[in-house]
Amino acid sequence: MSILLKNVTLNNQKTDILIKNNYFEKITPDINQPADKVLDCQNLAILPAFYNCHSHAPMSIFRGISDDKNLFDWLNNDIWPREAKLTEDMIYTATKFSILEMIKTGTVFFSDMYFGMSAMIQAVADMGIRSALSCGALDLFDSQKRQNEIKQIRDFFEMPNPNPDLIQKTLSIHAVYSVSKELIRYNVDMAKEHQTYLHIHACETKKEVDDCWRDNGCSPIQYLDMLGALSDKTILAHSVWLDDKDIDILAEKGVWLCTNPSSNYKLNSGVFMLQKLLDKGCKITLGTDGAASNNSLNMMTEMKLCALSAKIQADNPTAGNAQDVFKIATQNGAKAFGLNAGEIAEGKLADCILVDLKNHFLTPNYNLISNMVYSADSSCIDTVICNGQILMQNHFIDGEEDLIDQIQQFSRKMI
Amino acid sequence: MSILLKNVTLNNQKTDILIKNNYFEKITPDINQPADKVLDCQNLAILPAFYNCHSHAPMSIFRGISDDKNLFDWLNNDIWPREAKLTEDMIYTATKFSILEMIKTGTVFFSDMYFGMSAMIQAVADMGIRSALSCGALDLFDSQKRQNEIKQIRDFFEMPNPNPDLIQKTLSIHAVYSVSKELIRYNVDMAKEHQTYLHIHACETKKEVDDCWRDNGCSPIQYLDMLGALSDKTILAHSVWLDDKDIDILAEKGVWLCTNPSSNYKLNSGVFMLQKLLDKGCKITLGTDGAASNNSLNMMTEMKLCALSAKIQADNPTAGNAQDVFKIATQNGAKAFGLNAGEIAEGKLADCILVDLKNHFLTPNYNLISNMVYSADSSCIDTVICNGQILMQNHFIDGEEDLIDQIQQFSRKMI
User: Fold this and answer.
1) If you measure CA to CA, which chain B residue comes closest to A97?
2) Pick from A80, B22, B91, B165: most CB atoms within 10 A?
3) In this predicted structure, what is the pLDDT of residue A379?
4) Are A183 and A171 in contact (CB under 8 A)?
5) CB contact burial A285-318 (16+ within 10 A = b; e otherwise)
6) What are the residue ranges in chain B where pLDDT is below 70?
7) Is the pTM of this model over 0.90?
8) A322–B contact, CB cutoff 8 A
9) Residue B72: its pLDDT value, please?
């Protein structure tokens, strides 16, 4: 499959771009090679697509079912009882539905932590997006549960991968307050054995940090470090409550952090210290968390809140500037998961979005990156290309209506 | 003009709605009266439209020209020198362009403070939206400037109003740090004389409050109260830095506050105390501020940030709930400006949006209000009706492309 983008705007210049064998093969004006598909991009600009580094995709089935509650009330009374009702079919369909929303909003990759892995892996393969999937390990310090979790993780790693080019099998640890040392160590060992990534909720709430000090005499970061869980293949979600020693450890080990501003605000978890962490040399990515606590999977909304929140948090309007935040949402997410992508350059994997320069949100066009971070919404995203394949063109995704109907039907069983 | 909405969803029930003579005339299933236009609303829900209570519409021409800066650097070096270059033509076109974005995002009314009033009033009339326009009084304590401002305000009030059904002429005071007592009193008197509204930037930054105490021995709220500027026809924009005495005065006088969360975050002005003010009985509306400091005019983005920010500010995830915030963005805005609108009910002015229930952001549909506040974007808004006239149908607004081209051309003169 080859795609020729004619007269596309890249960094304020018109050019042609040839995509071949999943890569950006050639970027130069006036390419006259034949291609399987030629797109007229007269009014379109090309940008890196978004890499959503923390989600729980099937939870879109719970969007809006419960809001504005305390975390434990929300989890115990509204979310967990309903998660117990989820079938494989629902997980498959809800994952596809979430991927639909991600594509509509310009995302080509998500890193996920959930359960029902055979349904999830098939959904990702069927939608053609990139993913780092993991079975969220959670044993509540119970040895019976632990054996069950280990079995599920093993099953996941033995399961056939329907598209290894796009899907990475990764490991995850729910959190230090919900997972035993033994299960943490098991995941750390599995990640090393499979040379893959380890995804952990860490320092999301003040309570988590206080409880860790009470129970273990150290912070969650120090605790995870002691168990060998921190490396440049670790992605920590949330990471709101960090002390200076934690930050030094994270910077030194090259750990990736994933901030989820909407979710942290909605559940009143706290505010990420974006600028301080950037200044200390920490590596940052962006994620939406699940649609039950966001309530969308829209990386543009996350970019805006990430940039705005950084200013109030740092008491400095120059903090969290648009360029840094755009890089966090694109290039950094790709880097965190070892993808040769996230930039529009020859030799990079052909992941990109084409945005409509005639859209009002992108007008005037003094600074396209500022417009994407502070102004854009899904109406700006015309086309999404992932690994050299067109996932959406002219705002249209094949099968969209059926998927929405199916979710509406499943949702009736959740009330 | 009459419009019949067939099979529209209102509060989770299907109904028909007849709009006649600018009002919702009849709301009941199976209306069989003739109408000038009949809309099949099978997959659409009707909701109140948004009332944007603080904006500077022409500033959309500066969107993205300067971001992530300190307020005074931004104003002195990037905004004010460019405002001096604005022609009547530019103000006319930029106002229309802003109204285009407002309609696209479901807004039918905006309260504005700017200059170039003859261009602005014509732009509003030509786009068919509601507006409360005011010429932002600002004399920097200079008597020469004061005379000029008074002349401009008089001229504005003498100017013909091309559509008095939609457009209200109102008064505004830039701020206590930029307007003399004399000019404040002049505006207060004019507002009383014309029985209209008074729109003021108040307590936006901590510096404004500190300086007012230093210069006047009281807070900006007390200072405005002393000058007779506070009543239930006063709308205070921002109102971030309030003390308990201020809050008591505002509640007692029935003053309307207008929160502008994106702008307050972006310029690091501070965080509005939404829940505390609601609990104290203050009356709240929502606005976008200008697109130079937001950078969009999207009330859905503002609702989400308003609700999220309230939780962190109050350290309580139940603060700023979706229902309250939706009411603030709709019904309250209409009430603040004396409009018999903001609700879908017989006898109310026919302002509404029709949202697409087949849009992924509104799926599942457990709670449409939650979906509108926490998930929706402009792709959800199918149709906008203002005063019984269709301003947008099936996402389409007449003249959209030309307007965008014109702004792009004008923007080249701003670099």
Assistant:
1) B360
2) B91
3) 98
4) no
5) bbbbbbbbbbbbbbbbbbbbbbbbbbbbbbeebe
6) none
7) yes
8) yes
9) 80
